[in-house]
Amino acid sequence: MGKVLMKGNEVIAEAAVQAGCKYFFGYPITPQSELVAYMARRLPEVGGLFLQAESEIAAINMVYGAAGTGVRVMTSSSSPGFSLKQEGISYLVGSELPAVVVNIVRGGPGLGNIQPAQSDYFQVTKGGGHGDYNIPVLAPASLQEIVELTSEAFDIADRYRTPVILMGDGMLGQMMEPVEFIDGTESELPEKNWATTGTRGDGPRRIITSLELNAKSLETRNEALQKKFARIKENEVRYKTYLTDDADYIMVAFGTVARITMNAINKARQQGLKVGLIRPISLWPFPEKPFLETRDVVKGYISVEMSAGQMVEDVRLAVNGHAEVDFYGRTGGVVPTQEEIYQKILTVTGGITV
Amino acid sequence: MSMKTVFKKTNGLTDNPTHYCPGCTHGVIHRLVGEVLEEMDILEDTIGVASVGCSVLSYEYFNCDMTQAAHGRAPAVATGVKRVLPDRYVFTYQGDGDLASIGISEVIHAAARGEKITVIFVNNAIYGMTGGQMAPTTLIGQKTATTPFGRDESIQGSPIKVCEMLATLDGTAYIERVSAHDVPHIQKAKRAIRKAFEAQKNGLGFSMVEILSTCPTNWGLDPYESLEWVKDNMIPAYPLGVYKNIEGGQ
Ligand SMILES: Cc1ncc(C[n+]2csc(CCOP(=O)(O)OP(=O)(O)O)c2C)c(N)n1
Ligand code: SF4
To answer: Which residue of A50, A208, A217 is the best one to mutate when testing the B interface, meaning the one whose CB has the most B CBs within 10 A?
Structure first.
């Protein structure tokens, strides 16, 4: 299959279908509605099922039911709708069910607007729903990367029995780029012998629940979950670096903002400024290694975000006082321009030095 | 002399002792559902969805695969299960707070879509588990923890009649309201539950049985008075009978 020109939201949908996702429960919200519509058209072709739920709450709970039968299942939404999914996501974590949940982030709080934003960073990386938990969050920066990460999201979900969040800003959902779908190699995944499909005579009945009335038992269960989160932290960190080897200053950005930041870096490099980029791809687990490797040699970091400053807190934790951490952000759906980021680089680095 | 077994525990329930209060009819209703699943020989093909409320632990009691849903969301969870496994039996077991309050949207839309699931709806006119607060089904004048002066229509509105409401939807196949307050009614309740599962078996659409049930603990009545209270107060407010049967009413 050669390259095809597609919209980001549709790329996620097609990549999910190719990753073996046959069930989708969703509810429309801009700027992710094309994903829902694509699934409505596409899933019947592969013998799957698309269902428009009556709300985001119902959709995530349908996902919960379907995930419990062991199939690959997905839902998607954008910020206000994603907030409504938090109840179900907490239950998916508590019951250890695999599913992929897409959040194409728009401006908030409240109804906000339909412009691209990254202001759900805290919500996706710090739990979001009630209880002590973390969920793997993958943040692609290009449509080609969506193809790869969507398939990985399903694998991670199955490997650890966890919901996985695929997060993009509205721009990623709405932009068009040529993409190529490559036949993935099937990765080896654990058998779903926990699924509730009716016992059909094959062994004892199975129960899916997150209820544990005894405090000590729930603590034991939480300890097991925390061990799982530690394994995910160990194995599922993803990031890319750009020109960090000789950098004096390192920019930190994810998603489409990372691409704009890269252009600003190129411009700064032309002026002789040694600037590089760390691009977290997994927002949780947050990549600490590239910071540990650079924090004693660089002069500082600049986190660039479409938020009032959320990821910058994780950057500060990773840097742990070893270097200065600066921030540049736009909110409300305003996308920072290359020029603005370049000007920020000039301010922080003190401009051109020879 | 050979012995004949005339009564035994149904295989539709596990051996776990239930936690229900003495005199609570949740236990009776569990038994009816268990017996129907056993008699229809569908236990191994059934996935039950437990809800939130006093029956939150019903997954410990029904002898089939079970999944536990968030408060009110059981019909959505059941939808997810049934859509993946259309040839299995899927049922929810929900109280009135669960189904008629926080989960009213999920049950209406599951019914409207004609989801081929069976809802066992236990109406005790109160929130049992959280300590006797008002439910959407609390009767006018009924005292609860949150209607200490009695439910006042002008303040709290009027009770929701779920059977009557859902029967208006085209997706529903079988809707009946029964009561668990005496033996003849319990037998009727079992027949209704069986019909609801048969509607599911025949792929006719959404089926629900509402069962008027007791909560002696939160009503502040003894078990016998509670049964009387169902008969004298609940049945007049919630008339028993078949509200929908697309194969032809009784
Ligand atoms: C989201 C959420 N809100 C509130 C509760 C607390 N809660 C637990 S059970 C219940 C009421 C259940 O009443 P009902 O469904 O009538 O069942 P019963 O206990 O009477 O059998 C409530 C409000 C909860 N578990 N989750
Ligand atoms: S509180 Fe009420 S509904 Fe709950 S088990 Fe006790 S009697 Fe039954």
So the answer is: A208
